[in-house]
């Protein structure tokens, strides 16, 4: 027998079994192991001519990479610090080896090292005299990445003598032959004058607060030397934030263009991009130049006193699109590189599995529990019905979830296409969206209380034992479950979402669909195997009582959203209007079955009018809301301060350890973490013991600065927790914290 929506039942079952098989396959394939020792380390002396050097040798596990001085879009550079009696000792550091370019999932460009490589520090006669017989401590730290990133460090103690290093530190690599180190030393970039065939110019960008670096290499179009490399790598230089390079081949020349974000507004004091094109003081920018003519890598420097005011637009890098019309020629170099994850089955499968598991965990998050409870209530309703009926109801619930996730993915892509930064739960930063949700939940709750009846996921009358084909209600239940799940960031979900929000169109849709399948998975299982719900009690009159309890849970969810709404708007006026809407809706339903139906109809019209008013009126966000949240935090006994990168830099300068909490009023997971960890006496004792400085980033309202910071550190939503150590090292703790985990990174 054929159903008008589902077709043959065996086809539907085959479809669901296929989904289950894919889900289990992705979960199995995601189990990529992390090597026990992803980075090996060694130390030795090395002579080049009459000079002697300390050589620090590294060997990365195959396909894992560490980072250069400029790590790229994300990452942390390798850091080596020598100390004697707890005081830092400086040796003359040679240029670092030339890095390679790695394009990571989400089109993130990283600059760093794979395989084996060495750093060199020159020793002077005065160093031997000063340090003779003294114990030197070397602390090397790094971040090594493949499908995940793992921070690592090695503390080595040694004594120095001419031609010899004595160390008792275990687990060091064997020393290399002198010829190996000699080859690495000779390959180090050297500071050279800018070649005559290289032209560098700085111009104003079309995007606000941006510059564009234009460069041309005459006399060649050969890019074979630049395999997995940029033509130019920029050394870190505040306030210049250098983006992706795009290179094209013209007539007998190579043309490069790179956008630079001006980060002067984040400095202390702020430095605006000069409108006249002249810097207050010249900036000397250093670059690694992979010379395609001489076939070697050199370090070049150029002093810029200002920039050309003729605006230059930069097309997106790392794409296969044609170059801008004014450039001419054919895209080469980075433009031919495809995003690794787009062609790597293992990588995309890994993120799909994380998305699925994260979506599955959403089922037990407090945001979704009211709707999940209603759906479970519906399963009780259908318990004694045919397998086909259960299958159809759960199918429409799943379709509601998938439809909403596909809609969210489409909205994300639309916002990205106009250059807007969005994150997980972005719709809950919209007062109008919250107003719609509050109104909808209130109507659902009135239905649960029996004030009126319409088809819901459990039927038109939830206490009735007879079957009701309320497929529309099942679909809407899936929509509501999805919408309420987005304030939650479950374990595993953050990594998958970061990948999705920074990936291509297909990958965004795949990740969002897999999260939806995870959220719907328990009901997909019960559709295939109805006996899994055998433990649920039989339908009966008790369901009328439970129905009212579920109505209360919806009201509690609505109250939470009212609090979020108040945080987003000037509550004195808009909150009163939203309350007025709810009152007139209640009156409308109350009188809809009585003789005064016209009064009920008028109440609905008034509610509709006020609703149109608040959703079409410009809403001004409360200017003091962040201060109110800080005051609330401080009232609990801890000195939380508003987050900013300037404050992070101040604490770094003062060598103070900082704990950073990015949160939002609409984030349930944040609230759970606060109750279980951040509001406890154990955390207060830890703050006092370690003299932690506390910074709070409030993302309740949309904040581009916070969004950019989270994205730069591999996150697209809250909660997010960080520790900034005394030396400025930033440790990303992810979405969940414990006292033990915080202590681990404070030591």
TrEMBL record:
Signal peptide bounds: 1-29
Mitochondrion listed as a keyword: no
Record Pfam families: DsbD_N, DsbD_TM, Thioredoxin_7
Presence of keyword Signal: yes
InterPro entries: Cyt_c_assmbl_TM_dom, DsbDN, Thioredoxin-like_sf, Thioredoxin_domain
Recorded topology in the membrane: Multi-pass membrane protein
Transmembrane segments: 348-374, 395-413, 433-454, 475-502, 508-529, 549-568, 574-591, 598-621
Main subcellular location of this protein, as a coarse class: membrane
Location(s), subcellular: Cell membrane
Thioredoxin domain mapped to chain residues: 617-747
The entry's keywords: Cell membrane, Cytochrome c-type biogenesis, Membrane, Signal, Transmembrane, Transmembrane helix
Residues in coiled coil: none
Protein name listed in UniProt: Thioredoxin family protein
